[in-house]
Amino acid sequence: MGRAIVSPDGQSATFVELFFDLVFVFGLTQIVGLLHHDLSWTGAGQATLVFWMVWWAWTQFTWALNAADTTHPFVELATLLATAIAFFMAVAVPGAFGASSLWFAGTYVLVRVVGLTLYAIVGLSRPGLHSAVRTFSLLSVGGLVCALLGGYLGGEARPLLWGMTIVLDVVAALGGTEADGWDLHAEHFAERHGLIVIIALGESLIVAAGALVGSDFGAESLGVAVLAVLISCGLWWTYFPIAKPEMEEAVAGQTGLKRTRMARDAYTLGHFPMLCGVVAYAVALEEALAHPTTALPDSARLSVGLGLMLFLGGTAFSMWRTTCGSPLRRILIAGVTATAAYVVADVQPIVTLGIAASGVVLIAFLDELKAQRSTQPSSPSPG
Predict the structure, then answer these.
(1) I want to staple 266 with a disulfide (CB 3.0 to 4.6 A). Which of 304, 318, 334, 343 is the partner?
(2) Measured between alpha carbons, how far is 60 from 119 in angstroms, rounded to an integer?
(3) Is 68 helix (H, G, I), strand (E, B) or coil?
(4) For residue 274, which of 312, 231, 303, 328 has the smallest C-alpha distance?
(5) Residue 96: phi, psi to the nearest 5?
(6) Rounded to the nearest 5°, which phi and psi values hold at 255?
(7) Which residues are bridge partners to 6 per DSSP?
(8) What residue spans define the domains of the chain?
(9) pLDDT score, position 183
(10) Residue 153 vs residue 130, higher pLDDT
(11) Which residues contact 343 (CB under 8 A, 6 or more apart)?
(12) In this structure, what are the phi and psi dihedrals at residue 17, rounded to the nearest 5 degrees?
């Protein structure tokens, strides 16, 4: 009897998954460059469309690997194949709205097809999963066709068709996950999404380091760099000590269709705006380090504010969806901080980033207080 390809209980992230993720470090870098090249509403729209397809390729394959034994040779081979294809997809990102549009769309579809095929093969030994994957695959056809057509036709049709790709992808996710039988492994799923958040936050530091290398290391540049590290570390603190374990525990506490829906909403859909926030923040950071003594333009200050709101708001939504707790405090602090970072104009970047850092550190500090209170034993009642 051959070795089972279905994931065992208690499976953790493996090296081949981490290798797959590393390609998306490059992809994320390319998205930041794409947006920095055209920091306008048009550029932001194009970057969002491209980033969605990069994200959807990653998240669909992550669902497939959650169901598979990632140490199985066939699964490792399929993951390496997807890694190679995703590499060329990332290479095509800068020209996604130019000469490389069909190349980008074609490689995106290939990564999706490899993931769906792997999922279908894993599902052969589990009738419930096989039926669920078949439903999702059929619903995904429309989005894949629109992606290819957008890459082929180009022009004004491209953003419309790729926008339709997003709509159809969400419809496929909402409809496909209504089928029972996914049997999601919550711990592995949360771990994989935690790793991609680390990759995104690490990318913001890579951007800071890249912009700092070769500079004169003046006081302004060093001050911006210090704040960049502080904000990135603060964003890490707002996700990992409290949000991640609470979400993981909540998803693990559900079963069947409830677990699938919760994971879909909190992770597959809820984490996308979080990563968009990191991209927006990284773009503003690159601008700040390129001109550390010049006031940030309106578009860059808006990127700082939107970056904070998207990351912290996305985290708040994901926490609310899993734990039903109220994220109002987090949203209020993020909103006030983002607004202040934008409206305070004609100041050096160190001031704008200092405002952003204060809000992020405050949220991280309040989260830590919450964690400390939750671990303290309750006092015994008198009598």
Answers:
(1) 318
(2) 9
(3) strand
(4) 312
(5) -60, -30
(6) -135, 160
(7) 68
(8) 12-183, 201-372
(9) 82
(10) 153
(11) none
(12) -70, -40
Contact 353, 228 (CB under 8 A): yes
Q: Give the DSSP H or E segment for 223.
A: helix 219-239
Round to whole Å and give the CA distance between 48 and 263. 22
With beta carbons less than 8 A apart as the criterion, state whether 281 and 311 touch.
yes
User: What is the identity of the amino acid at 88?
Assistant: F
CB 275 within 8 A of CB 203: no
The helix/strand count (H/E) of the chain reads as 14, 0
Euclidean distance between CA atoms 127 and 327, whole angstroms: 39
* Residue 95: DSSP 8-state: G
Tokens representing 352 are 């704008």
Q: Is the pLDDT of residue 264 over 50?
A: yes
Torsion, CA 53, CA 30, CA 307, CA 291, rounded to 10 = -160
pLDDT computed for residue 229 by the predictor: 92
Q: How confident is the model at residue 378 (pLDDT cuts 50, 70, 90)?
A: low
Task: With beta carbons less than 8 A apart as the criterion, state whether 101 and 151 touch.
Answer: yes
Lowest mean pLDDT among 52-61, 134-143, 152-161, 198-207: 198-207
- Tokens describing residue 306: 């939107």
Asked whether 262 and 251 are in contact (CB, 8 A), the reply is yes
pLDDT at 381 over 50: no
194-242 confidence digits (pLDDT tens): 999 998 998 888 877 887 777 777 888 889 999 999 999 999 999 998 8
Residue 6 phi/psi, 5-degree rounding, is -75, 145
